C-alpha cells in the first residue's frame, strides 16, 4: 500500500497541466461566448487543439493498456489523475479524445468489435475524425433497470430492424456524430439478462429522427447536446450487431467500470477547481468589516470541501487500482461506491463555491453553474444513485449478514471486499 | 500508488483477528457484567490476556519503528489496520498495550525522555506493569487553545511546584495508574507557543486530589475513567520536566499525529463492526411482511455506511503513509482531515446501526451505545472539530487563495498538499 | 388563523414558569446527586413538590377537557406549551402528575375503564399515590408492527392467563409502580388489527418477574427505569380486560395522539433550554482571541437551532390544535409528522449545544447529555422514525398520486390535509 | 392561537385555484415554448390573462390593507396562501400584478412616494401598464452589506447625478420596464446606515446602459431577465429622490419584510407542487419489479418533504401574522428565519422530485429544473443565507446570553421572541 503518485504519473500530471495552462484555460471565455452565440457549431479552435494534443502525446490516454498498440499504455490508475485535470474545463476532454460517450464506445469497439466494425468505426473514432453517441435511456420507462427497455431490434433476413424511442443521447447533436450504439431487445421473452443486444447504427440511416435537443436546467450543452431520438423501422445489416444476440447487458456491464472512473475523476476535477475558486474569492471580499476568509463559517466550509474531495479522490483511485489488478467484476462494489459518492460530493462542493460567490456564482462568467448542472445530471446518468445504493446495500448485507459475526474482521478493507472473492489475486 | 495491504500486513491482520476471535470476543459479555458490578476494578482475565498477547508477539505494536529495539518495527501504515481491529472491542487495545493515553505517553517518553525518565516510567509502561494519564484539559477555559491553559508549573529551587485544575484526564481512575504527564505554563509571559511545559508527576505525589470520576453520557468508563483532578502545591524534582521549559507545545504537536491515526482507526473499527451488526440484524427481522434487509431505505443506509467507512479508512491510511514517508509536519493537514472526518463518520454509522436495532441498540447488550459515546466524545477530545476545521480552512485558503489560478492543478492530491511543501521527499 | 398564545395560556405559562423557577431549577443538582447515589429510591423532596403543585393548581394538566370534572379543562393546544416548560427538567413532569407513561395510562382508564377499574386504578393514579407502566415492546420481534406481538392473553375460566416477554417498560422499576397495562394477543388467528387486547395487571401478581433494569447509553434512568419483564402464567380476573377482546390496537391508537404531543413538546423544551445554554456558553468563552459568540460558525449554529425549534414548535402546536378541533383520526398525519420531526430536531440542537460546551457538554454537570439520551431514545419509542415515515409517505402518495394534478392546490395546508377528509369538523 | 384558515381565506384560495386551473395551468407548455423561441418578448396571452384577473377581482392582492383604497384589503396573513398558489407557476404572479420586484416597488411608492411620484409611477404600476426594476446589487462588492455599496448619487443643482454599476436587476430586461429604483450613496462619509438613498430613474434616461442579460444556471428568465446595468452620469430631477437623503437603508428595511413573505410563500408553492409531481411519478413507474411508490426509501423522501414543507409554511404564516399584528420591526427575527429556511427547503424538496423523475426531472418538460434555479437563486437574493444567519445568531445570543438562566422560559414562542419586546402590541 502506497499513497503517492509514481514519478511517471507525476510527470504526466505536469505535462497535461502545462498544456491546459498554455492552451485551454486561456480560451475558456471565448468558448463560452462562441457556443452561446453559435449553437450546434464546433468551436473553431477545437481542431487545432486536437492536433496539438496529438503532437504532445496527450491523445486517447483513456484507452486501457490491454488494447496493445492502440493504447498509449496507461492503466486506469495512471489515467485517473489526468481525467481529473481534464475535468476542470468541461469541454477539455474532447481535445484529448477522452470525452464521454466516445471513450466508452471506443472501448466497446476495441473489446468486442469485429475487424470490420473496428476499421469502419473504431479507427476514425480513435483518430478523432468522427464522434458517436450511446442510445440507452428511454423516456417511457425506468431504463436503469435494463429489463424495462422497450426498444426492439428484430432480425429480418440479413438485417436488423430497430424501433424505439430514446432520449438523453449525449453527443448525438454534434455535427460530427456519425455513429450510434443502440441498446434494445432482440428477445423480450428470454432470461432477464439476455434479452438485450447492442447494435451499430450509422447516424444517417433512414428512420432515425432527432426530435430535439434536450435541456438540462435550461442548458443545451452545445455542440454535443443530449438528443431525443425516434427510431422507426431503422434497418442495418446483421453484421452491425455487437458480440451477438442477447449480449447487450454483458457489454453494458463491461463498459461501465472504467467509464465511471472517468466521470468520477472529472467530477473531482470540477470540485477541486471549485474549491480553488472559493478560496480565491474569500480572500478578495469583505463583509461586516472582515475579509470573508477570516469567518469561521467560511473556513469550515473550505475544510469540509477539502475533506470530501480528498476522500472521494482516494476512493476513486482505489477503484481504478482494483480494476487494474483484479478486473471489473472484482471492483463492482467499489465502482458502485464512487458512483454514489462523487456526483453528490461534487454538487455539495460546487454549491458551496456558488454560495460564496453570490450572484457571480450562478452566472455564466464562472464555470460553477455549468459544473453544477453537469454534476447534478450525473446523479441520474448511468443509473440514478438509488439503483447503485440498492445493489451495493444488497451486496453488503449479503456479505456480512450471512457471516458468523465476527468471523471476518474487515472484508471491506482495500484488497478484499465482499463480492470480490470470486476472483482470486492475480 | 497501490491500494492493497502488503502480504505482511495481511498476515498481521489474520494473526490479530484470530487472537480477537479466540480470546476477546468470547469475553465481551463477561467484561460488561464485571465492570458494571465492580467499578474501578480491573477485569480479572485482563492480566492473562496481556500475557497471551505478549506471547503471541502482539505487544506494543503501536510503537513507531524509529525507536529501534523498543519497537516491534511497524510503520504507522502497517499498524493502522491493526488499530482498526482492536477498535472493534473498546477495551481490547489495552490487551496489546496499545491503548490511549498510554501509547502517546510512551511515545513522548521514548522520544523526549531522559534515560532516568525512561527507566523509571517508560520501561514499566512498555511492560504493561503500570498505566498513565495525560493532564491537559481544564474546566475553566477553552484549553484546545493552548494559550488559554491556566495550570502553573513554577520553579522553586530544585523542584517544580504545580497548581492547577484539570479534568477529562482519561485513565487516571485506573488502580494501576502511577504517572501523570501534566501540561502547564512555566512562563505565561513568553511567546504564545513557548509558555507551556510538560512535567512528570507520580500519581501518589502529595497535593494530587482526584475530585471525582466524570461521566460521559452517564457512563464512567471503568476501570480507566476520566478524572477531575486538583493539583495543589504539587512538588516534583526539576528532573521531571520533559525536554525543557517552554517546549510543551512542541511535545504536544509531535504527540498528536500518530495518536490521531490510532483514534481514527479504532473509530473505523467501531463503525465497521456496527455496519456488520446492522447487516446481521436486518436479515433477522421482519416488519410489515418483509425482511428488513429488503427495504430500500435500509439498503441505502447500508450503502452509505459502506461508502463513508471506506473513504474514512483510505483517508486515514493515507495520513499514516504520509507521516511515515514525510513526517508529522508534512502530514498535518491530512491529520486534521481525519480528526474532522472519522469521529463524525463513526457517530453517523453507529447511529444508523442503533436505529435498526430498536431498543436493543441503545441498551448495553450490544456495544453500539458505548461506541456512540466513545465516538461522540472524540469529537471533543484532542481539540473539537471546530478547531481543526478552523485551521485546515485557513491553511487551505492560504494555499489556494494566493495561487495564480489555475497555476496549480491539484496540490491537494496525494503527494503534495498545501502546507506540505516545506518538506521535500525524504 | 392566529399565532399568539391566548391571554389565559400566557398566564398559565407564567404561573408554571414561576413554579419551576422557585421550586424545581434550584433542586436540579441535588436531584442528580441523589439519584446517582441512591438508585431506585424516590427523591425525598418529590412528595412535597407534588403537594405544592396540587396546591398551585398545576396538577393533571394533561388530562383532556373531555373528561369533565376529572380534568382541569385544558385543551391539547393549551396544555402543549406547559409540557414544553416541564420538559426543560427531565424529572419535572412527575411533579405535576404529567409524566409518561402514567398520562397515557390515565387517559386509557378514563376513556375505556369500567367504573371498577377507574376506582381501583384511575383515582389513585390521578391522585399521584401510585405509578404505572405500559408493557408493549418485546425483545424478540419488531413490535412496532403490532401484528408481530407474541405475548399471549388467554381466557381460562373467569381469568385471563398471560405469558410473554416484554422490555423497555418505562416506569416499571419505580418503587410506587403498582399497575401494568399489558398488550398481548387474545386471538392470533383473528384479523390483523383485532388480534390484540390490553389488560390490567397488578405489579404484585404472581408470575411477574422483573428481570433487570435496562440501560440506555449506560444510564438506568432511576427511579423510573426501563424494565425487562417476564410474564409467566400471570393470572388476573377477566374483568381486568380493557374494553373487550380484540380492541387492543384500537386503544393503542387512541392513546398515542396526545401522548405524542406531550413527548414532542417536552423535547422542544429540552431543545429550547439547550439553545439557551449554548447562547450563554458562547458569551463566556474565548478562543483564538475572540469570544465564541462572535464566530460566524457559532452564530450559524445558533440561527439554525432557532429556526428548527420554532418550526417544530409550530408544527406540534398545529397538531394539538387539529386534535382539539377535528379529533385524533383527522390529525394522524400531523401526529406522524411531529413524531418524525421533533426527536431528530432535539438530537441535533442538543448535540450542537454539547459541542459548544466541550467536555462539560457530555458530563453530568449539565442536563445536555441526559437530554440527548432521552431524545435519541424517543426516536425509537412508540414506533421508530422509519415506521412513521413509511406510513406518512404512503398516505401522502395516496392523496396526491391519485389526484388529477393540479386539481388540488394545497391539501397539506393547515385545515385540510390528505387523509383527514373522512372526518368533518366536529 | 388557531391553525385553520378563516372561511374568507378558504374562499379566496378556492377562487384563485379555480382561476389557475382554468386559465394558467393549461398554458404552461405554450408559455415555455414561446419564451424559448422568442426571447425578450411578452407572452401574447399575458395581457388577456391580466384583464381576466382584474375582472375576477384577483388584482394587486399583495398590497397591504394599510394603503386604504389602493389596496384590496388583505392582510399579509391573508395574502400569504394566495402567494403560495401563484408560486406554483413561476410566471403566474404577474397575471395578478403580484410579481417581484414590482410588488416591493409599489409598496415603496405607496408608503414613501410623493403625490407626484405616485401619479407618475405608482398608478401605472398598480394598473399593470408598466413594469419596474430595483437596482441594488453590485458586481464589485458584497452588496448585502449596504455599507459596501459604491454607486454614487450626487446632488448637482436641481438634479441628482448617478454613477454606478449594478447587476442582477430583475425585470429590467422586460420590454415594458419603465422605471428603476436605484440604491446608491448620497453621503459616503455619513454614519453607516444613513449614507444610502433611493432614487427613481426612468428607464430611458440617458446614461443608462443595459450591458447584457445575465444567466442563472444558463437560463435568462425571459422576458423579465436579470440585467447588468451601467449608470454613467445619469441625471434626474431632485424630486425623484425617495423620502430624503440618507433614508435608503430605512426604505430597504421596510421593503423587505412583506417581500420575503411573498418570496417564501411562492417557494413553498414550488415545493408543494414538486411534492405532488413526485407523488404522481412514483405511482407511475416500476423498477426491479415493484412500483416506485412502494419503496420505503421513496416513502421516506415523500414523508420528509411533507414535514419540511408544512413546517416552512407554518413558520412563514406566523411571520406574516407577526407583521400584521406587531409590525415589521417586531417580526424581524421571524422574517430572517423564513429567509434562511424556505429557499433551502425548496431546493431540497425540488431536488428530491427531480431525482425521482430521472432525466425528465432536469429537462424543460417539467417545471422542476426552473423551480430549482429560482429557489437556488433566492438563497443569494436579498442577502445570502449567511448574512441572515449571522444576524439572527447575534440577536438570539444577545437575547439569551444575557438572560439570567432560566429566567425566561421560552421567549422564542410565538408571541414574544427576543428582539421583539421593544414594541408592544398594536
Automatic annotation (TrEMBL), chains A, B, C, D:
Which top EC class is given?
Answer: oxidoreductase
Q: Which UniProt keywords apply?
A: FAD, Flavoprotein, Oxidoreductase
Q: Which residues form the signal peptide?
A: none
Q: Which residues form the Acyl-CoA oxidase/dehydrogenase middle domain?
A: 133-229
Q: Which residues form a coiled coil?
A: none
**Presence of keyword Flavoprotein:** yes
The molecule here is called Acyl-CoA dehydrogenase
Amino acid at each position: 500500500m502506497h499513497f503517492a503518485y509514481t514519478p511517471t504519473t507525476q510527470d504526466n500530471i505536469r505535462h497535461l497541466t502545462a498544456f491546459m495552462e498554455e492552451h485551454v484555460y486561456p480560451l475558456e471565455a471565448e468558448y463560452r461566448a462562441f457556443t452561446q452565440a453559435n449553437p450546434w457549431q464546433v468551436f473553431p479552435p477545437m481542431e487545432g487543439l486536437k492536433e496539438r494534443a496529438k503532437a504532445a502525446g496527450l491523445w486517447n490516454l483513456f484507452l486501457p493498456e490491454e488494447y496493445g498498440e492502440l493504447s498509449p499504455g496507461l492503466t486506469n490508475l495512471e489515467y485517473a489523475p489526468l481525467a481529473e485535470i481534464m475535468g476542470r474545463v468541461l469541454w477539455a476532454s474532447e481535445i484529448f479524445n477522452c470525452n464521454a460517450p466516445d471513450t466508452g464506445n471506443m472501448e466497446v469497439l476495441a473489446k468486442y468489435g469485429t475487424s470490420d466494425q473496428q476499421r469502419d468505426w473504431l479507427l476514425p473514432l480513435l483518430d478523432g475524425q468522427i464522434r458517436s453517441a450511446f442510445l440507452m435511456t428511454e423516456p417511457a420507462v425506468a431504463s436503469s433497470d435494463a429489463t424495462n427497455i422497450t426498444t426492439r431490434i428484430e432480425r429480418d433476413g440479413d438485417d436488423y430492424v430497430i424501433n424505439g424511442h430514446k432520449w438523453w443521447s449525449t453527443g448525438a447533436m454534434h455535427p460530427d456524430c456519425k455513429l450510434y450504439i443502440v441498446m434494445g431487445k432482440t428477445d423480450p421473452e428470454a432470461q432477464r439478462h439476455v434479452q438485450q443486444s447492442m447494435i451499430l447504427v450509422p447516424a444517417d440511416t433512414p428512420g432515425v429522427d432527432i426530435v430535439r435537443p434536450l435541456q438540462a436546467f435550461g442548458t443545451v450543452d452545445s455542440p454535443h447536446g443530449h438528443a431525443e431520438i425516434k427510431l422507426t423501422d431503422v434497418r442495418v445489416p446483421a453484421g452491425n450487431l455487437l458480440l451477438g444476440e442477447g449480449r447487450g447487458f454483458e457489454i453494458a456491464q463491461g463498459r461501465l467500470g472504467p467509464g465511471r472512473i472517468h466521470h468520477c475523476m472529472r467530477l473531482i476535477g470540477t470540485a477541486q477547481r471549485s474549491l480553488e475558486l472559493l478560496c480565491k474569492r474569500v480572500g478578495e471580499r469583505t463583509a461586516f468589516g472582515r475579509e470573508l476568509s477570516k469567518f469561521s463559517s467560511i473556513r469550515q466550509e473550505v475544510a469540509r470541501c477539502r475533506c470530501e474531495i480528498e476522500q472521494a479522490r482516494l476512493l476513486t483511485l482505489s477503484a481504478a487500482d482494483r480494476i487494474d489488478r483484479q478486473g471489473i467484476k472484482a471492483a463492482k462494489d467499489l465502482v458502485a461506491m464512487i458512483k454514489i459518492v462523487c456526483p453528490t460530493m461534487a454538487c455539495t462542493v460546487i454549491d458551496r463555491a456558488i454560495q460564496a460567490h453570490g450572484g457571480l456564482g450562478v452566472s455564466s462568467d464562472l464555470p460553477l453553474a455549468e459544473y453544477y448542472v453537469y454534476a447534478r445530471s450525473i446523479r441520474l446518468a448511468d443509473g440514478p444513485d438509488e439503483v447503485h445504493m440498492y445493489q451495493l446495500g444488497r451486496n453488503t448485507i449479503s456479505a456480512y449478514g450471512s457471516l458468523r459475526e465476527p468471523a471476518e474482521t474487515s472484508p471491506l478493507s482495500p484488497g478484499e471486499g465482499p463480492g470480490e472473492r470470486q476472483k482470486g489475486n492475480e
